[in-house]
Automatic annotation (TrEMBL):
It comes from the Eukaryota. GO terms for biological process: mitochondrial proton-transporting ATP synthase complex assembly. It comes from Lentinula raphanica. GO terms for cellular component: mitochondrial matrix. This is Ras guanyl-nucleotide exchange factor.
Amino acid sequence: MFSKHSQAYRGLLRELKKSSLPPHKINSALSSSFRRLAEEAKHSDVILDDLRNAAVFMAAQREYKVLLDRYNPLVDLTAEERIHATARRVGLDMPITHEPENNK
């Protein structure tokens, strides 16, 4: 049976794996920092609570990103692309804007 400190640390590692880019590649600096905090948590319940809160926060941020992408697909588009996508959504098509050629 794992101690509550080990469980908190392993929960943090799981969340780091899920939220890392590329997937399942944990940053070694973060991992070692969390390991050090887990070791310090053996002497303080406040640090243990902070580790648990960090894991909950990372899970919530990951879920927020999924929901943001699902319900607001225009969030990562440029202003011009957002205007075209919005017009298409309501059944319109934006006219092609004329771009004058540079005559030298």
